[in-house]
Amino acid sequence: MGKIQKLPESLIHLIAAGEVIERPASVLKELVENSLDAGATQIAIDIWGAGRSRIRVSDNGVGMSKEDARLALERHATSKLRSFEDLQTLASFGFRGEALPSIAAVSHLELTTREPQAKQGLRLKVAGGKIISTTAVGVPPGTTLDVQDLFFNTPARAKFMKRDATERSHILRTVQELALAHPRVSFEISVDGKAAMHLTQAADLRTRIRDLWDVSITDTLVPLEFSQGPASVHGFINKIPAHQPTKSYQHLFVNDRPVHQRVLTHAIYEAYHEWLPVGRHPVFMLFLKVDPSVVDVNVHPAKREVRFANDLMLYDLLFHHIRKDLQAGQDVPVMKHKAPSPRAGEGWDGGYQQPLMPPPASVLPHPEGGRSVSVVADAPPAIKKLDATVRILGQYRKVYVLAEQGDDLLLIDQHAAAERVLYEKLLDQSRTEGAKRQPLLTPYVWDLPPDRLEIVRDAQPALEKLGFVLDAFGGNSLVLKECPAVFPQLKQAKRFLDVFIESLEAESYDPQENAAHEAVARAACRAAIKANDALAGPEMQHLLKELAACQRPMTCPHGRPTHIRLPLSELHHRFRRS
Fold first, then answer.
1. Among 22, 131, 442, 562, which residue has the fewest nearby CB atoms (within 10 Å)?
2. Domain boundary pick from 279, 303, 328
3. Does one domain contain both 416 and 486?
4. What is the count of structural domains for the chain?
5. Does residue 343 fall inside a structural domain?
6. How far from each other are the two terminal CA atoms of the chain, in whole angstroms?
7. Band of the pLDDT at 46, cuts 50, 70, 90?
8. Residue 513's domain is classified under what CATH number?
């Protein structure tokens, strides 16, 4: 027998499923897109166990006949393609005939359907891709797909699933995208038996956006609409001052299909770059319509990536039209800097500083009666105790603190040092009961999209250990009532919160495991004193005192040195003094 053998059909199905079905949100996307292709105007979604246990999608679409229902479970059986020419003018969401068979191959699936003209419906039960029963049932017109025990026969894939909160967040993000693309379709979503989202049929995109997001976001949006050559664009972008700390409010669609398209996203960022501070992100919900013949949606089975015949032309169109609209409505001065390429997790950088309750003495700069700090840079020795031999010389380029001890010159990176101090204080608080908190004079209302709210709720116990007190405030909002005493300003606390949650979201850290050290480290980096922050003498004195008290003062949490020492003998050697 030869070494090369044909794979069995069951294994082929499992391999195909690995490409199409990455996580529960992938299943939901495929099922809802099938409903939309069937002309549904009402879609009900029920999720149990973050989609691992069960995903059920019901619609009022055209339903299927007995023959079509059986064929829908076979690979490469589709109603949307007949020839190669059809692929060039494709307008439907599904077309490969792979999604439903792939889902059926890795789950226990139940398909119930009825055409409007049929007297009875049909129910098919499938396990591991094989139909095990067919039953006539009395059901309303439409289709219900019930997917249970996802990845029951592919344990390796199941192991790569993230925490329940992360998977639920991806599911809610997927629903948002589909709901934005189809405002005239109603969506009813429940999670573990509790209503999670109710979206009635909306007259237009603006109404749907208002249904999904808080007024603090929707009132800062302006419409964008243009048509030129083979392309047209409509949707909304943010007013210049209304940039956000995260990318949560960014949605891009090509022919109503939610996509990730780097070229177009880069065009949007470049259009904003003169008004976009470092670490901030634009808000956009944009729909690009192009002739299907100039866009390739067949790049990947998941259909999240698309390619254009002339992406540079589309880049220029989007860039110039957005920039023109922003300049026409400009009501704030142009920033002095150019924003770098977008980078996730830069944090809140609001232009105001709301005072908290007066910080306790322990977090205010306070010189110790002329005493100063001894800093040693050569590992392994730790920073010495405070004594009277170190003298602050000043701040260099608003980046480094200069000091002297005896015959040695000390250079301290103010950001790295502050980052180490903040990181250790927060972790110490998370390990002990009764974290030092301070109440806000005016509680801060934190508006979040549904997918991000899921992550925050899951992280609330960890946040409370760190000193953040958050309560529900209705809809998709939380209210921040107290924050850790280590933050002298609300701006810093908000920046930390945002980056901490974004770190959990992006990396799927477990927020209950030692308060997710890496997430705390990233957030401390964003919330700490920055380069270009001017420091007064007492502030520099206090920073060095706090650094001296750290357990690991030699480096920041990411491994950069906090300070270096230059002995006088080394300086003499450099200058060739005897």
1. 442
2. 328
3. yes
4. 3
5. no
6. 85
7. very high
8. 3.30.1540.20
Whether 177 maps to a domain, the answer reads yes
Please identify, among 303, 328, 353, the residue that sits at the C-terminal boundary of a domain: 328
SS (H, E, C) 129-171: CEEEEEEEECCCCEEEEEEECCCCCCHHHHHCCCCHHHHHHHH
How far is Cα 390 from Cα 394, in angstroms, rounded to an integer?
A: 12
**Identity at 64, one-letter amino acid code:** M
Residues 107 and 170 occupy one common structural domain? yes
Do 322 and 417 lie in one domain? The reply is no
Q: Is 263 in contact with 314 (CB distance < 8 Å)?
A: yes
CATH number reported for the structural domain that contains residue 124 in this entry: 3.30.565.10
The model's pTM is 0.72
Residues 447 and 542 in one domain: yes
Segment 184-205 shows an average pLDDT of 95
Of the candidate ranges 77-86, 199-208, 405-414, the one whose mean pLDDT is the lowest: 77-86
Q: Would the CA dihedral through 322, 323, 326, 328 be positive or negative?
A: negative
Residue 465: pLDDT over 90? no
Measure the CA–CA gap between 22 and 137, rounded to whole angstroms: 32
- Each residue of 3-37: pLDDT tens digit? 666 666 666 655 555 556 889 999 999 999 999 99
Distinct helix (H) and strand (E) counts, the chain: 17, 22
Residue-level pLDDT at 486? 85
The answer to whether residues 110 and 236 belong to one domain is: no
Helix, strand, coil percentages, rounded to 5, for the chain:
35, 25, 40
**Residue 567's beta-bridge partner residues?**
408
Examine residue 388 and state whether it is found in any structural domain, yes or no.
yes
Give a yes or no: residue 204 inside a domain: no
Whether residue 141 contacts residue 175, with contact meaning beta carbons closer than 8 Å, is answered with no
pLDDT digits (tens, 9 = 90+) for 560-574: 899 888 888 888 888
Cα(339)–Cα(351) distance, rounded to whole angstroms?
16
Token readout for 535 is 């420091």
Pairing of strands 194-199, 186-191: antiparallel
- Which residue range is the domain that position 513 belongs to? 361-565
The overall average pLDDT reported for the chain is 81
CB atoms within 10 A of CB 279: 22
Assigned token pair, 93: 């969401």
Is there a contact between 529 and 486 (Cβ–Cβ < 8 Å)?
no
The one-letter amino acid code at 285 reads M
Beta bridge partners of 438: 483
* Tens-digit pLDDT profile for residues 143-178: 999 999 999 888 877 888 888 998 999 999 999 999
